[in-house]
Amino acid sequence: xxxxxxxxxxxxxxxxxxxxxxxxxxxxxxxxxxxxxxxxxxxxxxxxxxxxxxxxxxxxxxxxxxxxxxxxxxxxxxxxxxxxxxxxxxxxxxxxxxxxxxxxxxxxxxxxxxxxxxxxxxxxxxxxxxxxxxxxxxxxxxxxxxxxxxxxxxxxxxxxxxxxxxxxxxxxxxxxxxxxxxxxxxxxxxxxxxxxxxxxxxxxxxxxxxxxxxxxxxxxxxxxxxxxxxxxxxxxxxxxxxxxxxxxxxxxxxxxxxxxxxxxxxxxxxxxxxxxxxxxxxxx
Amino acid sequence: xxxxxxxxxxxxxxxxxxxxxxxxxxxxxxxxxxxxxxxxxxxxxxxxxxxxxxxxxxxxxxxxxxxxxxxxxxxxxxxxxxxxxxxxxxxxxxxxxxxxxxxxxxxxxxxxxxxxxxxxxxxxxxxxxxxxxxxxxxxxxxxxxxxxxxxxxxxxxxxxxxxxxxxxxxxxxxxxxxxxxxxxxxxxxxxxxxxxxxxxxxxxxxxxxxxxxxxxxxxxxxxxxxxxxxxxxxxxxxxxxxxxxxxxxxxxxxxxxxxxxxxxxxxxxxxxxxxxxxxxxxxxxxxxxxxxxxxxxxxxxxxxxxxxxxxxxxxxxxxxxxxxxxxxxxxxxxxxxxxxxxxxxxxxx
Amino acid sequence: xxxxxxxxxxxxxxxxxxxxxxxxxxxxxxxxxxxxxxxxxxxxxxxxxxxxxxxxxxxxxxxxxxxxxxxxxxxxxxxxxxxxxxxxxxxxxxxxxxxxxxxxxxxxxxxxxxxxxxxxxxxxxxxxxxxxxxxxxxxxxxxxxxxxxxxxxxxxxxxxxxxxxxxxxxxxxxxxxxxxxxxxxxxxxxxxxxxxxxxxxxxxxxxxxxxxxxxxxxxxxxxxxxxxxxxxxxxxxxxxxxxxxxxxxx
Lengths: 284, 349, 250
What we know:
The structure holds 3 protein chains of 3 kinds. Chain A is of the alpha/beta class. Chain A is built from 7 helices and 15 strands. In chain A, the strands form 3 sheets. Chain A has a 7-stranded mixed sheet, with helices on both faces. A 6-stranded antiparallel sheet of chain A has the order 4-3-6-1-2-5. In chain A, strands 13-14 form a two-stranded antiparallel ribbon. Chain B is α+β, with helices and mostly antiparallel strands. Chain B has 12 helices and 12 strands. An 8-stranded mixed sheet of chain B has the order 3-2-6-7-8-9-1-10. Chain C has 2 domains: 5-152, Rossmann fold, CATH 3.40.50; 163-249, no CATH class. Helices cover 36% and strands 14% of the residues of chain C. Chain C contains 10 helices and 7 strands. In chain C, the strands form 2 sheets. A 5-stranded parallel sheet of chain C has the order 2-1-3-5-7, sandwiched between helices. Chain C has a two-stranded antiparallel sheet with strand order 4-6. Chains in contact: A-B, A-C, B-C. Chains A and B meet through helix 1, strand 4 and strand 13 of A and strand 4, strand 5, helix 3, helix 4 and strand 11 of B.
């Protein structure tokens, strides 16, 4: 624990990490009753980011909210966000449409280690809104398909009406080079697919635990049971990857809101291995 | 540099000379009611008259932190409408904090490190860069709650520009930095004599004799002791008394967690982002947008604070999150003591 | 967007909260520039058939009050309860702890039969209330903030922390440590800059309880000061908001 070097003059002249850059919405689409999709471009220099990182979205006069980037840098200069309207800022974003401007800070946090996964099998397990951060890596892997072994995507939601990226997921299910399976906890009249919790999909797939990375993102309860399945398949703890949700307010490891024990999720996360999460104790 | 001495009778003139160039904040006697029997009769304020400065002060509710890290600070302003033009607000002017105790000098060093780590926070550091610190040495503990000797904050190795040591009718003046040198140029100091140096030696010996270690273990073991206590029921037991009122955080000289408000002018033309103190003891602190609260029990929040003070901040910055000033204990209605808690968990291992 | 129509009215109360709104003086001008006032009982005559936001002070102590608040509710999109009487029942609730006939006699005198008096209650007991600005009287700064939020179209949120936070920030020595039992430990903050402890007076809980107060710890602390819960409840019944919650567990 070496002491942090302090330089007042240099620090005083540093750019404020709390002032957003202006961005414009290239696309805006209501995906479900509560989730809205945006394709965003910074005005000026494009955003340089990695799969798994997040940005802070600022609605001037209302506030700021941390949102996972759901696109991959392989998709071009703009980036994509999936926003669930649950708070003041995200509800305000519900009214935002193509051409509207908002403030963006970031990208913040670490990212999915796609290099380490090269040559390996990747098993994606996403529950509900968990598909948003997962999609950033899925898109990256699909855009570099030749670098990866077997790719499996398991996606679950409460009901069919809550399934995100429906059209895109449907295209994934048609692809022969990946195995995509979707389930809902409760079906409806039009639903012809799997019904049941996401852990059941594990029964349908083959996993080679010696060469598989499991990327699991979803609500805490789903994470717990899915990790259990992954461990039961024999996947080692350090190859079970997740992205944790916390309320990152500052994004730069100061404000304390996202802290789990000694670590700031906004800096050292949001991507962790199960091995790390297990040691944190307060992780899930 | 030759050791210097300032006669106490010349202190006022020095402060007045400093006030011509910088805003002077110092400990002063606050208005108190006749019924007020507590020791907390001093407070840190901007002074209008050097005679107000009370370098013989003991404890204060809030420390000098509030001048560097104000309870509310505007970090950005913007327009409402099509063209927001967000602009950083760096709000600072030359200050001198006059009469900072060694514990607070140490605490400010912790804040300096926290705001410099990884990504510098210019809003804090601009104020810090513009602030001179004149420290006043302590001859004896302020009261029974402080344990600065244990926490290593009684003898700060740096973090001040000038250190004054009071002895009889004089102050020994130790100049630590070039800024301190500039400050002392305005003071009617004289070189210390041999007799002065003997008196100073006597002060140091008496000081050492007046402070006693209060923790039954060396503080370097504190992080380990905390780690081992993680699952102890002691947290739940202490939290039964806790109101989760945040008084401990609000008064702590090293706490720096914050939340942000967007203040909008009533005419809806412009707004600003204002950060304000937040407290990890308050219920919504670790809540996420969907409503899940990752520290919903008072016991987990209380444990989090104790770990931050004794371990996490140290791990992050290399500087202690607790300086043993005793403010949190003094502020606590339920008499929860960080010192007693550290002692208790060491015993409950 | 059409200019929003605001209204201000009063049920049974001292109308001090309405006065506090008027006390905002020039700070009200931007609101008047952005919105129309459909009715303001404390300041002007006249009425309109529909309001976007109704700010109503006072509690319900007669059946006339019920009719009035229902009428307002039917005419407004948003109802904001102003002040302790409106949000928690306020001092009017004291009558619920006395003989109703005695109360009627000394309040309404000879003509008490003309008044259909009923036990006192807050507005939310009778109609849906969309937002509350508590306090006796309300804090004008908080009113302005709520009005700004409504005009911006964002929800107005009360502070969810106890008075202690603002009290410590005011550099106050805790009144409990001076031997004065103070309700700041369980009372919702937001009264700043009208913080009673800054003037040496204990907090009497006029803003109601903070969410999830540790009432058990409050009782323990009170016991250490030689007070029984009943002692304290009697004293702090004044604004009812605290009494209701705490008495459940007493």
